[in-house]
Amino acid sequence: MSESEKVAASPMKATVSRRSAIGMMAGGAAAGVVGARIGQSSSTSGNYEDIIDARGFTGNWAEGALKSFVPPGEFDPYFIFASGGHSGQMFVLGCPSMRLLKAIPVFTREAWQGYGFGSDQSESVLREGFDPSKSEPLGWGDTHHPALSETEGDYDGRWLYINDRANGRIAMIDLADFKTKQIIDLPNLGTSHGGCFVTPNSEYVHISSMTPSPYLAPGGYAPLSDYAKYYRGASCWMAIDQETGRIDMDRSFQIELPPYTQDLADAGKLSSFGFGFINSYNTEMAIGGDLEDPKKALESTAIANDFDFLHVIDWQKAEQVVADGKTEDMNGIRMIRLDVAVAEGVLHFVPEPRNPHGVDVNPTGDYMVVSGKLDPHASVFSIEKIKAAIAAEDYDGTDDFGVPILKMESCLEALVELGNGPLHTQFDGDGNAYTSLFVDSAVAKWTLGPKAGVGEGKTWTKVDHLPVNYNIGHLCSAEGDTVNPDGKYLIALNKWSIDRFPPVGTLHPQNFQLIDLDGDKMSVLADMPIGFGEPHYTQMIKADKLVHTLRVYEPGTDPLTMSKSRFATDPGDARIDVNGTNVDVFATVMRSHFTPDVVEVNLGDTVRFHLTNIETTPDATHGFAIPGYNVESSIDPGEVVSIEVKATRPGAFAMYCSEFCSALHLEMQGWFLVKP
Ligand code: CUK
Ligand code: CUA
Hints:
Strand order of the largest sheet: 8-9-10-11-16-15
Number of strands: 44
Bound molecules: [4Cu:2S] cluster, dinuclear copper ion
CATH architecture of the domain at 557-675: Sandwich
Structural class: mainly beta
CATH class of the domain at 557-675: Mainly Beta
Shape: globular
């Protein structure tokens, strides 16, 4: 073991000698890019020993700083796309610097980007993104699992999908401009958890219900006493338009599932291509009711069975069933009913240790890793064995709803003891798996089996254990959900930070920890407090795969359609068209002027501002805000934004550019005059 590996092996205790720390900086980590950079700077003293001393670093923290440092002006090799939990947003970070690059508003309004504050584009995404029968426009969502689009099982940098765990919705984000383009409120889903995942060529993005809904009941309501009769889950296969990345409802379908609580899900790949896997718990169908009887509390009644069911879905078969027309319309979407799914061999169950959380398919697609939060093992199932058991009808009977249950021992490949509270698993490209241990606040590194390339005598063994701070949920390795992960870095998404940061009030930030996967032993390189949401999952993609990302729009672009807006206004064509009480303002926007800058209307008019940013310079974004009218927008170079304002308040409103765009930014203002 080299000196630096020894240091990395004992991150909490390491106090290496000064000499070895310097050696590391001069030789190991610093020899590449970072070393060259230090050498380039004209003002460095070169006296690293003094700096380390003065700052009180141990050798391993000096190494962590060097390994995660990205020089000013240089770019990170990876992007992290993190969900934001019940903030309803997503976040983009660079890795390994862990610098925050952007928030992407999805289900929640966001004023900086004018998301949901008057512009037609974002308003329509939000407005169409909820079932109008819901009494209030939904103002938030709970983003859990981002899914990057894939080609042949590799991230391709085109689109990103995210589920709303709270409201059973799914959103599509275009990585051309990092903006949310579509939200769908899925019929028959009250909540969602299984997914998003995309199939290996982005044929479908999958999402499934969490808690079942009474969609079979007349009128959509049934008391809990009719749970087994009317409540059902649903697995949704949402077809992706290959040109736009949008979900095409007409080609999408659902599969009815028993009223269990379906949890996480993953797509098969390579060996398991064509399959999807969903975990479940509460196959007891417990419904709570602790006032009546304290023993009925869900957390005790929902863990009565020793086993729950891994749902194995053959989506290619399902596709055929849909093509054959063996579906029913269920509230606006084609649904394969449960009896049809069983008869056609679309759905099988495999018993899994009770109340599991994550199911994760390894890069070769041979193994499904199921982590039971109440069981210290990872249960590994083999697709080869599952396929053989299905072919042989190797059943242990059926569940109450007629779904055939494959014999567990026929499908199980290995049980690997990992530690307490295993939740989620990620992979590297060398046959290793990394599982989060929630209860132990640690990451377990372990080896997979021969199909993953692991040699004899080394298979199915825990090889490393790294404490993290604290209560880790998901983890994410570089390109970790692809057929070809990089490993390299792991992000631990820690739920609690407790004492890792100075006090900022009673709600503490979450904590992302950057973990080095190079070498045999994992080590923590850096902490990144996340004080703006509760990320559940992230995906990490090579930055150079984002080849479709724009710096400026083509002139006159409507971001919703990514084509020329019919409201685009050329320089010199700005005008105000009045048609009765309808006023259309065709405005051009550039440093440092709105043309026109005075808009006078009558009380009660409907005013539509069509604002074209005629700049072509990257980053020359302007804002458009009307005080007192709750209007705020961001108009990026080349972009056209349309905003409808009902002139319901008389007065003189000093509209202005809200983005500090130029030396004369403060002069970039005008008047919205509403005559009584
Ligand atoms: S769940 Cu959050 S820690 Cu929604 Cu993926 Cu496991
Ligand atoms: Cu345009 Cu400030």
